[in-house]
Amino acid sequence: MPKGVPVATMSIGENGAYNAVITAVSILSISNSEIADTKTINLIAAGEVIERPASVVKELVENAIDAGSLEIEIKIESGGRNLIIVTDDGNGVEKNDLELAFMHHATSKLHLKIKHLGFRGEALPSIAAVSRIKLSSKASGASEAWSISYEGGEKMGELTLYSLSQGTHIEVRDLFFATPNRLKFLKTERAETQSIVDIVNNLAMVNYHIGFTLTSGNKKLLKYAKQTSLFRRLCEVEEEFQGNSLEVNEEEDGIKLTGHICRPTVNRGKYTQIYTFVNGRPIKDNLLIGAVRYAYHDFIPSNRYPFAALHLEIPYDQVDVNVHPNKSEVRFQNKKLIYEIVTRGLINALSRRIGTFDVIPASDHKTTNTIEGFLKGSLSDSFDKSDVQNEFYERRLSPFENQLIKEFASQNEKAKDLSEQLKSFDYTGIQKSPSQAEIMVLEKKVLEQVDLIESHTLGFARCQVFNTYNITAVRDKLIIVD
Questions:
Q1: Residue 430 and residue 407: Cα distance in Å, rounded?
Q2: Which neighbouring-strand residues pair with 152?
Q3: In this structure, are 197 and 256 located in the same domain?
Q4: Which of 191, 226, 261 is the last residue before a domain boundary?
Q5: Distance between CA 112 and CA 90 in Å, rounded?
């Protein structure tokens, strides 16, 4: 090939998937002997883009979304190894663009404001290189649908008429038949099917206005109707969002964070229920997962993970989505700002849900009233009432905790001395009533420790609640230590 010859390339245009855009790209000074044949190039590209059947589903469904589809149907067999079919009702592909859609292009190296999921145009040629594929489509406004087939990267015959009312129908058979060594790296049929389910769930969450159906053999795995809000779709995907959801809404410097999280009592042992999206693109980013974990670190154990579905809308020139072959990772221009927005948004949502109080200095005369209000009002509301807005932990106060609230809230508590308090405390239902000798020994130990309060900021520990909160006393103040 002579130097400087322009190469025809294709990317996803404004009107949907597969629309052709011709981009002139000059070939650098490379001798003919160094230029690999098209089939080899496609196989190399396929090795990066198509790792497993789920990769095929992801690329084809993203193209269907770009095409403006409102209904997408996916069918698989043997975990996607034998057959993958994706049908949509989108804009379709023009007859003259069907062959162009299977050409490799250089759009992945262009600096663009990427608004579409399938921006690189590598999916179809990569899939065609390692499988038998048939693309049938009817473009919007066209009178006929046309079909074209490829096998191992080679075109099989010419364009033929096809019966299709609207949109695009793609069949991918015998995945990796052209590269049999790849087959040994596939997991079990069940594992590959689950990977496809996860991909569809991720894409369905953020594209809640689209209906999705996933079928494996004769078994329907997923069925999502078109929804009007992210919350409704989340309740379809994860039932635990229903009744446990907190809304997240934060914005700064043109960056907007929206989504829903679950209260801390709903958590799991893996981070797979943390769903993150950037400009409508499902991603897995350690920065975002770390921000979510930081926001929850005061509410759940360190080895547990919350449920969260968060969508970041970022100006396209502030995020690079072309950093991973599968487009599953991104690079943020301002990592610190993104981290702060996510943590602040989640902490605000959790604070509203829990009803946390503003911090009051220890010297403020309102401290005692605030603590009494917390013990008398917040705790009793949280555990005794069924109102969803006040419920946090799903349990009732124990007899000891009820007695504790009464003791602390008593208006005459200051007038009682320590001995009288110990003698009048009601241990009924908690433990066996102590003898007079035991009370005297306990009283003596307590009085000895009271002298140490002056030199201990957190005072003298009275008790522990829920195996989490230590209740301590300093003079006329009460301190709760998490």
A1: 15
A2: none
A3: no
A4: 226
A5: 24
Low-confidence ranges of the chain (pLDDT < 50): 1-35, 106-111, 355-396, 411-412, 414-415
| Residue at a domain's end among 329, 354, 379 | 354
Query: How many whole angstroms separate alpha carbon 322 and alpha carbon 482?
Result: 44
The tens digit of pLDDT for each residue in 437-456 reads 666 666 666 665 555 555 56
Residue 273 neighbours by CB distance under 10 Å:
16
Q: Are 291 and 339 in contact (CB under 8 A)?
A: yes
**Separation CA 138–CA 168 (nearest Å):** 6
Number of domains in the chain: 3
Do 174 and 261 lie in one domain? The reply is no
Tell me, what's the pLDDT at 270? 85
* Residue 74 shares a structural domain with residue 208: yes
Q: What is the pTM of this model?
A: 0.66
Domain that holds residue 122: 32-226
State whether 338 and 476 are in the same domain: no
3-state secondary structure of 58: helix
User: Would you state the pLDDT for residue 420?
Assistant: 57
- Same domain for 190 and 281, yes or no, is no
Element (H, E) at 439: helix 436-450
Strand partners of residue 258: 249, 311
pLDDT tens-digit profile of 369-423?
A: 443 444 444 334 433 433 333 333 344 455 555 555 555 555 445 445 555 555 5
Give me the phi and psi of 355, to 5 degrees please: 75, 45
Number of Cβ atoms within 10 Å of the Cβ of 184: 7
Tell me if 71 is assigned to some domain: yes
3-state SS track over 142-160: CCCEEEEEEECCEECCCCE
